[in-house]
């Protein structure tokens, strides 16, 4: 590749041309005598040839790791161009949203062919996926394809472009509970879907009989039904599933029941029984009303015994790390009632765990944030004067959403509790249309959007701006659970029907 010619070369050529035309450089046309012109020509030194521009050869290997030139002839190192692209992507994402990043980068890479070559860097696209889409997982052949897929899927989410499917557990052959005696009267109770967890290409559904069913989302096939180990129980619903932790590859599923038992199973390893990792003690600990996990931790939220609201386990060693807290002390009686009477949309409390080692716990009266790293401690707390609809609470890795009893939703930063957006969910269409019932409202949040289900309708908002986007066309009769990731929304109804909306590109 030849470097651009130095700027003085063009100036020397112009000066010589003026001399040939008789211009003295001051605007005079040189009308002097011929002898004077002849003497000047004789006194002029022999013209020194202008050196040709130096040719710089860069191999194809060096071209990807060495230097590039800007339009003015200066040298722009590749790391500088990549850093510029990353900073531009971050600034654009914060100021105009993630969907604005791709068009901005397209303009940047059109500056020149050498800048366009930077766009072929896999390391650049890997960093862009991490910075813009908060993902470190590669599902496609290249990071560039991964970025395009995430952008397209998020765009589909915003403009309501999806495919709708229905799954019914009765459509699949369900494994019988092991151990012979299935619990007597409990088997005659209606089967209710109580918990939903999405992880990668898999969906885990927890039921009131204590079972967990695993589905493969691309094929919508039922893979396996997992039952807990049976033992004497206190209350008809003591073995109802209260929480699930599902790893992205579905090689391990952890699920808890109201009586405090925690089971671990490998759903893809064949028809094996679940292993009990923790034996609950409902009399001394209370009911395990919610259970979740993420990264290094499992966290359980209990109600029924004062001073024992939280338990934290190491997810790898299954060792109990912490026990304590008073968040659910005012809800002790309701915690006991859950063992004998299931109301799917009435929750004692919610607990959610983020990958950065934070957890948010919410009841109808308070919301608090726990730092799980090192020592479990409360780093943020807020009391609600209006009351919180517990079923509306959900969190992603950076923020959580909750709705008060007047229908005002608030999206807040996890670590600081700073409010990011606020909007009303109590009106149809998000405006001044007739109000919707708040009783039984269910909510969830993914990386960009908030979903709320009330009165059988699921509506979608932009999480960062609080802008109402649309309502899903399909009706959910008496919703019992709601979950979403960046590609899917899943809801269950009282007849155990599983509704799924797929926004995949």
TrEMBL record:
InterPro entries: F-box-like_dom_sf, WD40/YVTN_repeat-like_dom_sf, WD40_repeat_dom_sf, WD40_rpt. Residues 37-46 have a biased composition (Basic residues). WD repeats lie at residues 485-505. GO terms for cellular component: nucleus. The keyword Iron does not apply. The keyword Nucleotide-binding does not apply. One of its GO terms (biological process) is protein catabolic process. Residues 24-33 have a biased composition (Gly residues). Keywords: WD repeat. Residues 1-56 are annotated as: Disordered. Gene3D superfamilies: YVTN repeat-like/Quinoprotein amine dehydrogenase. This is Uncharacterized protein. It comes from Beta vulgaris subsp. vulgaris (Beet).
């Amino acid at each position: 590749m030849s470097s651009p010619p130095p700027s003085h070369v063009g100036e020397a050529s112009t000066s010589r041309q003026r001399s040939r035309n008789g211009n003295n450089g001051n605007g005079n046309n040189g009308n002097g005598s011929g002898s004077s012109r002849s003497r000047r020509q004789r006194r002029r030194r022999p013209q020194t040839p202008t050196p040709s521009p130096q040719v710089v050869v860069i191999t194809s290997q060096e071209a990807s790791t060495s230097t590039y030139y800007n339009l003015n002839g200066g040298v722009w190192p590749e790391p500088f161009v990549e850093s510029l692209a990353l900073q531009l992507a971050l600034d654009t994402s914060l100021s105009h949203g993630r969907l604005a990043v791709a068009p901005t980068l397209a303009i940047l890479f059109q500056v020149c062919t050498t800048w366009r070559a930077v766009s072929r860097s896999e390391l650049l696209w890997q960093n862009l996926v991490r910075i813009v889409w908060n993902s470190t997982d590669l599902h496609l052949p290249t990071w560039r394809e991964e970025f395009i897929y995430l952008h397209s899927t998020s765009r589909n989410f915003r403009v309501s472009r999806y495919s709708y499917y229905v799954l019914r557990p009765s459509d699949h052959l369900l494994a019988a509970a092991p151990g012979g005696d299935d619990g007597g009267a409990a088997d005659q109770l209606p089967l209710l879907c109580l918990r939903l967890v999405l992880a990668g290409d898999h969906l885990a559904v927890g039921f009131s009989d204590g079972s967990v069913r695993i589905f493969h989302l691309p094929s919508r096939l039922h893979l396996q039904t997992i039952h807990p180990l049976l033992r004497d129980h206190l209350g008809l619903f003591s073995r109802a599933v209260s929480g699930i932790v599902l790893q992205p590859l579905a090689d391990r599923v952890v699920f808890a029941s109201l009586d405090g038992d925690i089971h671990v199973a490998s759903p893809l390893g064949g028809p094996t029984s679940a292993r009990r990792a923790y034996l609950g003690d409902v009399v001394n600990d209370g009911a395990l009303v919610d259970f979740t996990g993420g990264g290094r931790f499992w966290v359980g939220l209990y109600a029924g015994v004062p001073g024992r609201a939280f338990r934290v386990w190491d997810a790898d060693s299954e060792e109990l790390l912490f026990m304590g807290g008073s968040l659910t002390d005012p809800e002790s009686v309701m915690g006991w009632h859950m063992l004998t009477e299931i109301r799917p949309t009435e929750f004692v409390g919610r607990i959610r765990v983020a990958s950065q080692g934070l957890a948010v716990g919410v009841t109808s009266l308070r919301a608090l944030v726990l730092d799980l790293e090192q020592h479990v401690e409360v780093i943020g707390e807020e009391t609600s004067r209006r009351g919180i609809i517990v079923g509306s609470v959900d969190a992603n890795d950076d923020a959580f959403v909750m709705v008060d009893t007047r229908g005002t939703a608030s999206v807040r930063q996890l670590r600081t509790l700073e409010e990011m957006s606020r909007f009303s969910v109590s009106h149809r269409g998000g405006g001044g249309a007739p109000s919707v019932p708040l009783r039984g409202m269910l909510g969830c949040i993914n990386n960009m959007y908030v979903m709320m289900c009330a009165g059988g309708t699921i509506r979608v908002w932009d999480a960062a701006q609080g802008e109402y986007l649309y309502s899903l066309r399909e009706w959910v009769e008496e919703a019992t659970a709601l979950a979403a990731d960046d590609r899917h929304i899943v809801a269950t109804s009282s007849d155990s029907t599983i509704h799924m909306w797929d926004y995949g590109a």
